[in-house]
Design goal:
The chain contains nine helices and no strands. The protein is mainly alpha-helical and 205 residues long.
């Protein structure tokens, strides 16, 4: 009678799973999703390649978990930053410093890689959409507070429109920067900063 494989203890599973997630995170930045194979992933993680499917079911599911894990870290950072007792303009400036840091850390590329992967793999779309919704939720809460702080009329500055605008700009910014393009970015950010400075001056008055 064949023996049923014994499932690894939770600590062993966590250590191996984390090794795969760490390896996939590096490879998404270095070679992109199209360059990742089970063999390459296992070699990068220094683990048995059969465990990729054992732990995650598929490489697609593993890559989605990489994005979710990375996002969880950044979402917590953003919530803490936007929840601080500081003028919104300072939070906005910090958020764009974070954007640059996230580009350098590889998050932006991983986020774009998973979106591109989901275009042709519908089973991944709910997980990518969930990440998108998390970012929108953070911005929505921050902009609602800012709107009240600056006394902005809802019909003139609708929060949902501002959330969509910043999400679209943020992702377009990341795509162009990843492609080596930065034309107009500084000018647009300066213009937004100037507008926020006017709002801040009006609030103080």
């Amino acid at each position: 009678m064949a023996r049923t494989p014994t499932k690894p203890a939770p600590t062993a599973r966590n250590a191996t799973a984390d090794a795969f997630l760490d390896a996939a995170e590096r490879l998404l930045v270095e070679v992109g999703h199209a360059g990742i194979t089970t063999r390459l992933l296992a070699a990068e993680a220094n683990a048995n390649q059969g465990l990729v499917h054992y732990y995650f079911g598929s490489i697609d599911a593993l890559l989605a978990e990489v994005l979710e894990r990375f996002t969880d870290r950044l979402i917590e950072r953003q919530r803490e930053m936007y929840g601080a007792d500081a003028p919104f303009i300072e939070k906005w400036r910090t958020a764009w410093r974070y954007q640059q840091h996230d580009l350098e850390a590889g998050y932006s590329k991983i986020w774009m890689e998973l979106q591109a992967l989901a275009w042709n793999r519908p089973h991944l779309r709910p997980r990518v959409e969930h990440v998108n919704a998390e970012w929108r939720g953070v911005l929505r809460q921050a902009f609602e507070r800012a709107s009240a702080e600056y006394g902005l009329a809802p019909d003139e500055f609708p929060v949902e429109a501002l959330v969509a605008l910043v999400m679209t700009f943020g992702q377009g910014y990341a795509i162009e920067r990843l492609g080596g393009i930065d034309e107009g970015h500084a000018a647009l950010l300066d213009w937004i900063d100037g507008w926020l400075e006017d709002l801040e001056a009006r609030r103080k008055r």
